[in-house]
Every structure is written in structure tokens, then in C-alpha cells.
Amino acid sequence: MAARFHRPDPRRTVVLGIAGGLTAVFLSAIGMVEEFIKRSLVDPEVVLGYVTIALVPFVFAYVVARPPPVREGIAPVRPGPLTLAAGAVAGLLTASVVSLFVVITTEVNVRGVLQNVSPPLLETLTFHRGVGQGVVWLLVGGTLIGAGGAAVHLIPARYRRPVVLAVVWVLIFGLLQVLIAQIFRGLKVGDTVNPFLYKGSRGLTIHGAITVWIAAFLIALSLEGQREAMRRRLAEATPAVRRNYMLVGLAVALLILAVTPQILGNFLSEVLDLAGIFLLMALGLNIVVGYAGLLDLGYVAFFAVGAYTGAVLTSPSSPEWNPAFTFWAAIPFIMVAAALAGIIVGTPVLRMRGDYLAIVTLGFGEIARILFLSDALKPYFGGAQGIIRVPNISIGPVEFVTSQDFFYIIYALAIVLIYVSWALQHSRVGRAWMAMREDETVAEVMGVNIVAAKLQAFIIGAILASLGGALFAHKIGSIFPHSFNIVVSITVLMCVIVGGMGSIPGVILGAIVLVGAPELLREFSEFKFLLYGALLIFMMQMKPEGLIPSRQRAQELHQDEAAQDAWLRREALGDTEPEPAK
Amino acid sequence: MSTDGQRREPVLELRNVDTHYGQIHILKHINVEIYPGEVVCLLGGNASGKTTTLKTILGYVRPTRGEVVVDGERVDGLLPSMVVARGVSMVPENRRLFKRMTVRENLQLGAYQRKDKDEVREDLERAYALFPRIKERLDQRAGTLSGGEQQMVAVSRALMARPKVLLMDEPSMGLSPLLVQQNFEIIQRINGQGTTVFVVEQNANMALSIADRGYVLQTGEIVLADSAKALLENPEMKRAYLGELE
């Protein structure tokens, strides 16, 4: 049975086309396009501002032209001429909305309200060709880009992913020039590779970009066929073999971690240190939110308790009382203080669920910050002046001073806490948490002591965060109450949700990407929370289980396709008998 | 089935239990006795206090007067988890499996209170023998099973606690006639293997057809208590609960 051509829904095409236009106008009006226009990705013409604005019609057209998902009982369709046409129409509509915006704002000055809609922005949007000619360029460009987005579906399935991935890699190489150039320098090949790839600080060279694309394409293509095979091999492997794979993977990971600070240099190690501290917190919050299902919006409180306990105990100039312990001697006290804080926060919220719990913990987070800031506790915590002169950490005669040194301490602790998380997940209490998350009442009928399980989650989560806080205090060398605001809680929660609740690899990825990337992409820092919000909405809509879900769902997701294949086969054989009932 | 159980000590007993929700008097002087090996049903319409009875046994609700006794030991006032540890387990209404967890994990949670790992393994084998279907589905998420299979898992999960008495909350609720039939067959099978079962049910015909004895609850009071056979014959019962028209 020959598959029919796909006929995209006209109404959806129009709606998404206009939505794309509004998105592009929004990105322009908040100043993103202007901000990004200065950043060159590939010399001389490809600048981030234009890439951003071009991505809008591209992505919307891609979505418009996407064939319906494979389902049982519905014959698959294949993309055809109408696919391209729909993409072009969507792109044209997107460009029309932008054009309308350009024409209107040229005539009417809206800068009183939209401060960023400046003459330079309008010049950018019209490619410095004046309104008349610029609008023509916009419309033609939008149509072509829209058709291009739709054309992705025409690429044979085998090549589609590699082609797109390779383009993404070119953009990444352009965006992360600082990081990548440093890696090549660290590997001692910077002198030869960097001048070839990059043109000063103006992004990739043309031949550099082409090289990256080809290399990424070939690698992705060769991996494409093997992904399935590798997954199957892993699934079929005996536990002993799987353990060997794990050990090899672990050894490689440790080796990479061991050389990372040397390769990355001081600045990039600093970025990874920060990401690492958030990783420690995210691992803790993953236990509270991911395992036990208790939404805690005031998690920063425990981070602050750890930081302050550590600082008071170790700093020679902490007010009132300064035993000037070493970091290592302070650790047990920090953990006890955090456990107490966990009990203090945990006990009153034992009977609360869901939204109420979230709001109350939000309050606790603020209370902690205000207490540390308060005059009443100033003799102990220094109020707004905070605590300074938190000493460096040392092991015997070795003192950890630079961010490269700190990297080892932070990630060594991270490895320990990853192991702890993993062990907890597979323990009896881990099962109790997960049962509680699924259905608190029934978990109780199974004999789970809900009160104990909730308190355990709060206490262990608090201890993990406090260790992160203590390292933070030693790393920065001084702490102030304003470092412990709600933004920290939200960032950690983002790491857990985006990475995948309850999934350790997900949390690691979440922390590295969400905390590390904004530090590297300075252009984005102004829009960090806008992007966090957009990412959160996108994730909740499209991938609520996170980037790396806690359990492999591949099998389930493929069941739909298998069912459709079976249905098609029956159709082809003219077998009209219904499937035997189970 | 044991009709001579009367001479033994009851495994679960409610003695003169009163329960209040705030000012509202829900259960009024409830007396229930369940002897080892029996199937006993508690019948009653909506808002008659059936669910409150179960909540009182499990410790979700504390009785204002009276005692709940499991195997000679008072359990009223204990936390639900402690009541479960003393040998009461429940198949909740609508099964309520942990849908996103695997069948295996569901069964493991049933044995959450137990420390005797070897015997837990034996009980798992027994569950597979009772329901061979379960063994094929062990690593599947419970939510992906069919209704009948979910019922098997729910019963097995409750049995994994090795309960002295198994409570079943509305096993016929919201199920097709075929599944209801299947459900009651399951109850008979596990009772045949020695499990004492206390069924709380609206479907009086079905419940009495498998029970040894029955209690009828009406607005918080036990209005009838007799053998199942006698209840099926009882004219008042026929009129009010068995749906027979004179």
C-alpha cells in the first residue's frame, strides 16, 4: 500500500505562522536580537542575532510540516510538495508579522513603552536597506527559511538527524568558542587548530564551519545505525557484562575529571566549580522532590545553613565565637546543623501535600535568609556584613587555593553524593519514598511510615545541600545573606526538573547545562530567567519526564510503531479478521 | 471454609467501636468478629460507614470509644504502618497500584514491613503459582496491565505482607461483570489457601455467594449479622439489598 502525501492542516499552518511572527517580534522587542547581533558565530556574515530571528520561522515551519505521529490504525503519510508549501506559507506569515511590526514602529514611535524598539533594531530587521526594500527581503527570506524548515522532513530518515545535528554542532562551536578554543589549547593543539577554526574572536572561519559540519555529520551518521544496536547489546548483556561496561565507563569518567581542570584552565574551572556546587544541591533536592515527591521551594535555606555553619566554625574572624576549626573538623557539625534544620522545616509540613507544601517551604526559605540578615542574630552571623575570611581547605600540607584545585574537592564530593543517591534509590527507604510519591495513602497501607519517610527525605536532602553550602563558603571565602535568595532555590529546582526528576544522570546534566551554560554565554545572561521560564514551559509540555528520564521509556515509546507495523501488515495481507481478544 | 471457627480466638475484632468525624457520629457501637480462615463480608449502601470501618481498623481514624483487636492485641491508636506490621493488609478500592512502578516493585512494597528475605522470596513464588500471568509481567509498569491483571497484582501485593487478615475494599466497584466474577473467584482461591478475608461490599448478592458470614451496616449501625446462607434467605435483606421484588 503506497503511503499518501502528507497534507498539513491549513488552519494550523496559519495559526502557527502568525504565532511564529509574534515570537520573532517578542524576541526583537525585548532586545534580544539587538543584543545578539554583535556576536559573530561564523565570520563574516553569520551573527547570533540573525540566527536567532531566522530560527523562528525555521522551527515553526518544521512543526507545521511535521507528519502526524505514527499510531495504530492510521496509515502513515509521507512528506510531499504540500509539506514544502505549508512551510513556505508559515514562514511567509511569520515574516509578514515582523514586516508589519517594522512598518508600524517606523511610523509610530513606541519607545516610550518598548524601550528596545530602537532605530538600530529596525535597521537590523530591514538589513540596513530601508523599510521598503527591507520588507521585501524579510518576506522572501521568511518564505525561503520556512520552506527550508519544512524541507527537513524531505531528507531521508537516515540522514535527517545527522544533517540537523551537524548544523547544531556548528552553532555550538561558534557559540562556545571560548570553551572549545581553550580545550584545544589545553590539549596542546591550540596553535594549529584554533587559527584554522576560528578567526580571532569573530567566530568560526568559513572553512572551519564546513569542517565542523562534515565531521559532525560523519560522526552522527556512523553512530545513527549503531545506537539501536548498542542499546540492544546493553539490554541483552548479562549483569556481569553490564557491570564491566559500567566500570569501564566509570574509569573513563574519572580520568576525564582528573585532567579537566588542567585542560580548561582557571576561568572555565571556575564555571565548572559553580556548576558543581549546584550539582551537590541538585542531588539533594532530587531526593526530596524527585524521589519523595515533596515540592520544596525553600531549599536554599539548607544551603545557607551549611554555608553559615561552615563559616562560623572555620573563620578566624567570625563574630562572637570562633573555634577556627578546619573544614574537615567542621563537617560533622555542619551535617548535624543541617539535619536539625531539616527537622525544623520538615515537622510542620508533614501533613501538607502538593501546593501547600510548596508555599510553606517557600516561606521557610525566606525566613532563613532574613534570620541570617537580622540584627538580632548579628552577633553570631554578622548581619548584612556576613562572615569573611573563611579559610581555604587543605589536606595535610596541601592547600586548595585556585578554582582548579577546588574542582577536585567539589567533584570528589559530588561522586560520593552520586553514589549515596544511587544507593538510596535502590534501598528500602528509596522504595518507600517512591511509593509515597505515587500514592501516599496506599503507601501507608503497605506499611510505610509516612512521617518517618518524609522526615528522612528532608533530613538527607538538607545534609546534601549543606555540604554544598559549606564548600561554597570556603570557595568564595566570605558569605553574605543576599547570596541565599530564592533564585538559588529556583535554579536548583530547574536543574532537577529539566534534567529529569528522580534521575541522577539527568540531574548532573541539568546542573552542568543550566548553571554552566549561562556563565559561558554572556550574551544570554540578561535573558537567563526568560529562557529558564520558556524552557520550563517547553519541558512541561513536551517532555515532562526530563531530558534523561529516570527509567528507560524507549520500549514503551516504540510500542506504538510496532503496533502500526502489525496493522499495516494485516492490511496488506487483506486479513480483515479482528485481532483475537486477549 | 470453616464454620467451626467459633471456638477459636477471633483474628480481628471490633469491640463496641464508636467513631466521630468532629461532631458527626459515624460508627455506633460496632461489633465485628472475624475468625481465622473465614470470609466475612460487611454490606451496606452509600454513606453507611463501610469505608470508615476500614479506616478505623487500619488506624487512619481513631475510634472515640471501643477497641480494635488484631490477634489478641489492641491496635486502635496505632499508626497505619504499625497496624500493617501487626498483620492487617488491604486491597484498596479501584486497586490503586503504583502505576509508574514495575509489578516487581509493587510486590516488593507489599512486603515492605518484612525482614525475612528468604520467606519473602517464597511468597513471591507462591504469588506466581497463584497467578502465572504476574510472572510474565514482572518488569512491566503496573499501569500498563489490563484490569484483570492489575487486580491480580493488587491482591498479590496485599498478600506479600503475609496478613493475618486481608481487607478488601469494594472489589466489585467500577468493574465489568466479568471482572467482578473473576475478582470473587480470586477471593475464594486465596481463602482456599488459608487467608482470612474481610470484604467490604455494596454488591450483596455477589459477596454473600462467597462469604461464610455477613454483617449489614446501616447509617453506622450493624442491623443484621448472620451466616451468609441465612442472610440470603432473610426477607428484609431480600427487599433492601438483594434487589428482589415480592
Quick tags:
heterodimer; A: 582 residues; mainly alpha; 3 domains; two-stranded parallel ribbon; two-stranded antiparallel ribbon; 24 helices; 6 strands; disordered C terminus; B: 246 residues; alpha/beta; 6-stranded mixed beta sheet; 4-stranded antiparallel beta sheet; 10 helices; 10 strands; 37% helix
Explain this structure to me?
The complex is a heterodimer of chains A (582) and B (246). Helices cover 71% and strands 3% of the residues of chain A. Chain A is mainly α. In chain A, the strands form three sheets. In chain A, strands 1-4 form a two-stranded parallel ribbon. In chain A, strands 2-3 form a two-stranded antiparallel ribbon. In chain A, strands 5-6 form a two-stranded antiparallel ribbon. In chain A, a hairpin with a 3-residue loop joins strand 2 and strand 3. In chain A, helix 17 packs across helix 19. The longest helix of chain A is centred in the middle third of the chain and has 53 residues. Chain A starts with a strand and ends in a 10-residue tail after the last helix. Chain B has 246 residues and is of the alpha/beta class. Chain B contains ten helices and ten strands. Chain B has a six-stranded mixed β-sheet, sandwiched between helices. Chain B has a four-stranded antiparallel β-sheet with strand order 2-1-4-5, covered by helices on one side. In chain B, helix 7 links the parallel strand 7 and strand 8. Chain B is globular. Classes of the chains: A mainly alpha (582), B alpha/beta (246). At the A-B interface, helix 17 and helix 18 of A face helix 2 and helix 3 of B.
Q: Which SSEs are present, and which pair or pack?
A:
The complex is a heterodimer of chains A (582) and B (246).
Chain A: E1 4-5, H1 10-29, H2 32-36, E2 40-42, E3 46-47, H3 48-64, E4 77-78, H4 81-107, H5 119-125, H6 130-151, H7 157-175, H8 177-186, H9 190-197, H10 206-236, H11 239-291, H12 300-314, H13 327-346, H14 354-373, H15 378-381, E5 393-395, E6 398-400, H16 403-425, H17 428-438, H18 440-445, H19 450-476, H20 486-499, H21 504-520, H22 522-525, H23 528-542, H24 554-572
Parallel strand pairs in A: 1-4
Antiparallel strand pairs in A: 2-3, 5-6
Helix pairs in contact in A: 1-3, 1-4, 3-4, 3-6, 4-6, 7-10, 8-9, 8-11, 11-16, 11-19, 11-20, 11-21, 12-13, 12-14, 12-19, 13-19, 16-19, 17-19, 20-21
Chain B: E1 12-21, E2 24-34, E3 39-43, H1 50-58, E4 65-70, E5 73-74, H2 80-85, E6 88-91, H3 103-110, H4 117-130, H5 132-136, H6 147-159, E7 165-169, H7 177-192, E8 196-201, H8 204-210, E9 213-218, E10 221-227, H9 228-233, H10 235-240
Parallel strand pairs in B: 3-8, 3-9, 6-7, 7-8
Antiparallel strand pairs in B: 1-2, 1-4, 4-5, 9-10
Helix pairs in contact in B: 3-6, 6-7
